Structure formats: C-alpha cells, structure tokens
Amino acid sequence: MNFKKQTMNNPVKIDKVDLQILRTLQGNARLTLKELAAQVSLSSTPVFERLKRLENEGYIKKYIAILDAEKLNQGFIVFCNVKLSRINQEIATEFTRIIQDIPEVTECYNISGSFDYLLKIHAPNMKYYQEFILNVLGSIESLGSIESTFVMDEVKHNYGIHI
C-alpha cells in the first residue's frame, strides 16, 4: 500500500493524539481499528479519520511484516561502503536505479565523507557475499571501490522512530 507523500510547501500539523496513534502503530500495526481507538481513548470513527489523514499526508508510508533474517537464511549482514569512480547527477541517478533492482540490498544511503553510498546487504553466508561482490556490485560500471563491514552481532535494532 503506497500513500500520498506530504509536500514541504504544505506542512500539516499533527497533534498529540496523532502522535499517540503513530507510536501505538509502531508497536503493533496489526491492531484492529477498535483496539487502536481504545488505546488512544477515542471512538473508532475519529481514529479512522485520523489514520486515513496520516496515511494520505505521508506520515505513514506503509505497513510491513518484520521477518526473521536468520530463520530465512539471510542473516549474514554486511554494511558496504561504496565509492563511485566518478560522480555527477547522471551517474548518481543510474547507480541508485541499479541499486533499487538488487534484492540483497535492503537499505541504501547517499552519504558524505570518504564514500558516496552506504549499503546494507543481507546474504546467506560469506561465500554468497563474495559472489555477490564479484558478479553483481562488480558489474556496475561506475563502481570505484568498496569497503565491507561484517555484522558479528545485532545489539540494537528499533524499527520505529522516536516521536
């Protein structure tokens, strides 16, 4: 489900009830409308209207299920710093287009500093990642260099944001 994004030119104010709805949904997006309404101390109709407004204004981007990467044999996590050989708008646009189509890359950030992009990659194991570097990332023409950091243990991972 994709919702309309809020524009910077027309910011919409949200109140403490809206924030309470958002916090509650971050904890459990599977609540029924009735359960959500009870948790924010309103009836279902105003909560439904607020929820639709929050979706339409882009505060809620989508609803997802959080899967267990280990159980799905995708628990080998790598943060990969990418430096492009050259950078301009056309090259950056093409790189981000390519990255969108690589399922192993679950997150991608354009960053400042010594590298241009930070990728989060899920793989089954080191051998798979090695093949991925050689055959997938290595085939990107604008790729200059990479630096991989392997996750040994996840200490903290909050899916929500602090509001």
UniProtKB/TrEMBL annotation:
InterPro entries found in the cross-reference section: ArsR-like_HTH, AsnC-type_HTH_dom, Dimeric_a/b-barrel, Tscrpt_reg_AsnC-like, Tscrpt_reg_AsnC/Lrp_C, WH-like_DNA-bd_sf, WH_DNA-bd_sf
Ranges of residues in domain HTH asnC-type: 14-77
UniProt cross-references to SMART domains, sorted A to Z: HTH_ASNC (SM00344)
GO molecular function, one term: sequence-specific DNA binding
GO cellular-component term (any): cytosol
CDD domains: HTH_ARSR
Name under which the protein is recorded: Lrp/AsnC family leucine-responsive transcriptional regulator
